[in-house]
Amino acid sequence: MMKSLTRKQQEIFDFLLQNQDKFPHPPTLEELCVCMSLKSRGSLHTHIKALIKENLIEAPERKQRGIRLTEYAKEMINHSDDQSSLPFVGFIAAGKPIEAVENITYMTIPEQLKTQKPCYILKVKGDSMLEQGIYDGDWVIIEQRSYARNGEIVVALINKAEATLKFIEQYPHETLLIPANSTMEAMRYKPEQVEIQGVLVGQMRSYTKNH
Amino acid sequence: MMKSLTRKQQEIFDFLLQNQDKFPHPPTLEELCVCMSLKSRGSLHTHIKALIKENLIEAPERKQRGIRLTEYAKEMINHSDDQSSLPFVGFIAAGKPIEAVENITYMTIPEQLKTQKPCYILKVKGDSMLEQGIYDGDWVIIEQRSYARNGEIVVALINKAEATLKFIEQYPHETLLIPANSTMEAMRYKPEQVEIQGVLVGQMRSYTKNH
DNA sequence: TAATTTGTTCTCTATTTGTTCTCATGTTAT
DNA sequence: ATAACATGAGAACAAATAGAGAACAAATTA
Questions:
Q1: pTM, whole model, 2 decimals?
Q2: A56, A107, B49, B168 — which has fewest CB within 10 A?
């Protein structure tokens, strides 16, 4: 996240973050040049391009409406010191690795849906937990944890390759991963094949749009 | 949401917002020109057209004296301070009135689970929406609304006595309330027996505790 | 009815702004 | 030392924005 910002790029980004409310209108390149003590719009623009590439600044596409931060960028400050929000990190579909999203976004989550420990959010693809009331497109809140009790629903990594969301039953020589869908079979593994990546603690669904 | 106005457009819109009470009649283009220090009505009109396109100003349709803000624009200032918490007001169980809680509590809800309009939160008792993935103990986010489209899930008040959460189908002489549970029957009412109190827009479930 | 006001469209022009270039100067790492 | 990179200046270009003024038709007023 925010891997490769140059010193100057960081400086410009910080300035925009701190002064976003102070501009009546989003600043133009010319105005920013003055603030940054630059004499050339062109120079500034190369930095702006880099910030656009990092999804921190809106791409204006030649529109003359000033330099404005993206929602993503604004989230960074809002949620950096705020413990009511959790990161939405990717998608989970039974049998595939977790598909990480390119830009992590944050969602404000009610206290009742999370735990004291670190949690993150995944979006469910597929119907393997249908009978547990977890549908395609639902969000799930996962507590980051490497162990589980029998009967909990876990994010399990199988053979270090496939991720899945299933009930878990662990016995000395066998680990069962059980979908809540009667059309699917329970899967049996040796304990060392299954790595627990987290435990389901909450679930959410929107009935309005496709997010 | 007011995506991107030009500087001049923003300036004009701001002026109208701040001075909407000060004009005995809605201002004419000529009067606005004076306020904005413009010499040409035509120039101003292009900006006005842009604001009309953004649904911030009513189109006067050649009527004279017609520059006025839309309801949408007026809402924007009222709802500019949107907070992300919604009130948890009570329990809903099929066939009983909504059971209000004594102390209303507030839950912070992610943007993705609500709408622009006022919403509130209920907790579900019972299994009448089981096959829609809404379980006993789930929270539901309800948009306060007195009408619904067929196929939406609504909070319906029957005979001014019983509240329930069901699919709705409305026909000229009959209103159907359909549970998503194949062991239960659809219920048929006369339209005047059914009062819509809200529409389901989101759902949440905790897997950890009993709240 | 006639005169005036007002909204609307049009053309023309000027300025601002984002964007892309080239060139030059440092700094850092291999 | 060489290459790679970060940084900055400035020129040049195209598109977006902005304003002036003329002309016209509908609405309003006298």
A1: 0.72
A2: B49
